[in-house]
């Protein structure tokens, strides 16, 4: 039976296992080896290079449904990635093949209904494998690229969230059929009952895995996206300021006037009327400005005008 207490860094790791033996699998997914004696959670995590705060956040969430992470920025994305990727490996390489083997041993494969049960399980295994492989192909590389400072406009975590659907419908159907199908002879009945028990445990584990992704991983990646986007904007502004230190000097007064007008939201025709020049002259000025500053968009010129004190932000048309 699970212990409903909240675990802290100074609790002994062995006590977490005694209270909740199903955490043994979580330890393996975090890369924590057994043999830690009476050391605390913090000591074990530090020795085995696992972020303590992230480990306890996942543990307390999966045991008690606790979501009160007081500082999301403290959650370690590499630690979460390690946990999720190792969970996939365990489920695909061990759990699914193990249950398939149990089913095969418990059923009479010469029986048509038995073959249908195995086919239903294989369909479920195929679906869940595709789901996890999608994450490994699309989601994890996307996150790793962001951690390296490589922003991408081709994907975002919201796309993943919208397609993060439940894949346990076939598993529920499988359980129902097995319960109704249980053979009358004791040998097959016992083996199939044991297999059914493992399927229930498998379903419970998979549900928790999906909840960790929904409630911890996805929000953390949303936060990373926000910080990455903010950093990218700041970098662009810095580049505008630093890429041409003498840009104010090489711009003519008329070109500065054009930039100010652009920042104030004027069209080329409105700029021409405002400066008493032709529209073609405005276009020429803008072409020269783009060549000198390497800034082509009105938004970019507006930022340039603000950071170089050509206009006050209050006069800018946002």
From TrEMBL:
What is the top-level taxon of the source organism? Answer: Bacteria
Instruction: Give start-end of the signal peptide.
Output: none
Q: Which GO terms describe its molecular function?
A: DNA binding
Q: One of this protein's GO BP terms?
A: regulation of DNA-templated transcription
ATP-binding recorded as keyword: no
InterPro entries linked: Hemerythrin-like, Sig_transdc_resp-reg_C-effctor, Tscrpt_reg_LuxR_C, WH-like_DNA-bd_sf
Q: Which PROSITE patterns does the UniProt entry name for this protein?
A: HTH_LUXR_1, HTH_LUXR_2
Any one Pfam family here would be Hemerythrin
CDD domains linked: LuxR_C_like
**This protein's UniProt keywords:** DNA-binding, Transcription, Transcription regulation
Residue ranges annotated for the HTH luxR-type domain, each copy included: 244-309
Q: Which SMART domains match?
A: HTH_LUXR
Kindly give the PANTHER family that the UniProt entry links to this protein: DNA-BINDING TRANSCRIPTIONAL ACTIVATOR DEVR_DOSR (PTHR44688)
Record-given protein name: Hemerythrin HHE cation binding domain protein
Q: What is the scientific name of the source organism?
A: Prevotella multiformis DSM 16608
């Amino acid at each position: 039976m699970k212990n409903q207490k909240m675990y802290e860094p100074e609790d002994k790791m062995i006590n977490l296992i005694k209270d909740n033996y199903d955490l043994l699998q979580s330890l393996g997914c975090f890369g924590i080896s057994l043999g830690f004696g009476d050391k605390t959670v913090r000591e074990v995590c530090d020795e085995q290079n696992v972020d303590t705060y992230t480990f306890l956040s996942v543990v307390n969430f999966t045991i008690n449904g606790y979501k009160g992470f007081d500082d999301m920025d403290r959650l370690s994305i590499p630690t979460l990635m390690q946990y999720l990727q190792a969970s996939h490996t365990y489920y695909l390489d061990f759990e699914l093949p193990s249950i398939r083997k149990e089913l095969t041993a418990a059923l009479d494969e010469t029986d048509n209904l038995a073959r249908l049960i195995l086919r239903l399980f294989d369909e479920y295994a195929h679906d869940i494998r595709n789901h996890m492989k999608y994450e490994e192909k699309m989601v994890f590389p996307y996150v790793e690229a962001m951690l390296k400072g490589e922003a991408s406009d081709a994907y975002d975590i919201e796309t993943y969230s919208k397609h993060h659907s439940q894949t346990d419908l076939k598993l529920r159907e499988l359980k129902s059929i097995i319960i109704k199908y249980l053979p009358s002879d004791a040998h097959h009945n016992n083996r199939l009952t044991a297999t059914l028990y493992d399927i229930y445990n498998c379903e419970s584990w998979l549900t928790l895995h999906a909840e960790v992704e929904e409630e911890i991983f996805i929000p953390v990646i949303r936060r990373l996206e926000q910080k990455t986007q903010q950093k990218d904007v700041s970098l662009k502004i810095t580049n505008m300021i630093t890429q041409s230190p003498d840009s104010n000097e090489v711009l003519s007064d008329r070109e500065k006037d054009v930039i100010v007008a652009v920042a104030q939201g004027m069209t080329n025709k409105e700029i021409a009327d405002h400066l008493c020049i032709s529209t073609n002259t405005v276009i020429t000025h803008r072409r020269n400005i783009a060549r000198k500053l390497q800034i082509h968009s009105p938004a970019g010129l507006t930022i340039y005008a603000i950071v170089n004190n050509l206009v006050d932000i209050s006069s800018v048309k946002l």
